[in-house]
Amino acid sequence: MGDLNYRIDMTQEAVQECLKKKDIESMLENDQFIKEQLIGLDVDNFFEGKIEFMPTYKFKIGSDNYDFSDRVPSWTDRILYKSIINLFILFLKSY
């Protein structure tokens, strides 16, 4: 578990529009962590469950409103895991 500080590679305006529409998929397509996973950087051999919820960072204190003052909202609190089964599947796919 950790605060990984990965962000969504979109402008604040684009993220605000996605948030209004509850368009999680567009934001995930631009998620820095997922991009690094796809090209095998940094988090090699770690896995994450499917994200089916809105970004978790950063809200204005005491409200349900996102704070856009310094950053684009993102999924910074993530749980990664290693699995022998998933590593075996990756091994088989490489052949």
Describe this structure in words.
There is one protein chain. By secondary structure, the chain is mostly helical. The protein has one domain (2-93). It is 36% helix and 8% strand. The protein is built from 4 helices and 4 strands, in the order βαααβββα. The strands form 2 sheets. Strands 1-3 form a two-stranded antiparallel ribbon. A two-stranded antiparallel ribbon has the order 2-4. The chain starts with a strand and ends with a helix.
Question: Which structural traits does this protein have?
Answer:
mainly alpha, two-stranded antiparallel ribbon, elongated, about 100 residues, 4 helices
> How many domains?
1
Q: Could you say which overall geometry the principal axes of the C-alpha atoms support? A: elongated
* Number of distinct helices: 4
Major sheet, described briefly? 2 strands, antiparallel
Q: Helicity range of the residues?
A: 25-40%
The chain-level structural class is mainly alpha
CA gyration radius, whole angstroms: 15 Å
Strand order of the largest sheet: 1-3
Element string (H = helix, E = strand): EHHHEEEH
Number-wise, the strands total: 4
Tell me, rounded to a whole number, the average pLDDT: 82
